[in-house]
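Our working data are protein records whose layout never changes between entries. The record below serves as our worked example for the rest of this section:
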Amino acid sequence: MKVLVTGAAGFIGFHLSRVLLERGDEVIGIDNINDYYDIKLKYARLAQLGIDKNAIAERRSVTSKRYPAFIFQKLDLTDRGGIKKLFKESSFDAVINLAAQAGVRYSIENPYAYIESNMVGFLNILEGCRNYGVSNLAFASSSSVYGLNRSQPFQTSDHTDHPVSLYAATKKSNEVMAHTYAHLYGIKATGLRFFTVYGPWGRPDMAPMLFADAILHDRPIKVFNHGEMSRDFTYIDDIVNGCIKVLDNPAQPDPKWNPNDPDPSSSNAPYRIYNIGKNAPVSLMDFIQTLERKLGKKAQKEYLPMQDGDVASTYADVSSLMEDFGYAPKVGLDEGIEVFVTWYRQFYGNH
């Protein structure tokens, strides 16, 4: 299978690209390598995939030295001409769109970045699929779409009309846009609502990296909502496993879908939405204690109120992903944090 992975220098995109390549797929990866967080980490991920940093230039394809079936191109989703050219020349069997302007709180500071990347960029991907015969599309959504919903675990049958951040609103918009293209053009579109992904090669703006860096450098960690928070922490390997199951099984119309009582997660078009999480929320304080134990060092804690755009708890109902594909998250927090800490020490060489 020939797969386009957008956001290939990102956390999930890097891991997914590697697994696809190791099982024998052909992968074209794109990323704009923006500076939302340290680009050295992004280039280091690409180096693991055999891409030489010095060979990367705008719109130019670079073939991996480690994986002959991997080609990388520095390309922004908002580059309509570049995306069109890529689709025209590549004949993809499947596309998974993981590229996005990430971060809930950053969307309050830089709203235009989210509209441009997450909506205009996603439209360019949809148009590429439509115009160049790609019927298998998976795309990243987010647990943040549940917004003000307090009914847990979050179910894909829940309505998601009350987002609390612009980031969440753009992810909700992606789902709606994808359904439109599934309905009008028969694109088999599957959205995955990721729940708090962590693991080696993770994002520096997320809790595991922020906390590890602060603890090891004797800085206080910021504990929001005074610690009264929980997250459905999901290890990266379990996320990648779910992504591959979806790519291998494109969405189909739901024969039981009822337009008089519509389920938001399916349709009479080839469209599905799935939660992808551990299905086992962990309190923030338990997470911190696990990280302290694996680092062998206590954290200094600064207790703060809830941040704008954040939610107190996330909890994924993954029953539909289990029923449809046999998805079964395997990695518990203790094991996952241990692997993360081992990688962190090796990569950053802090202690």
Notes: The two ends are 42 Å apart (CA to CA). The chain has eleven helices and 14 strands. The mean pLDDT is 95. The first strand starts at residue 2 and ends at 6.
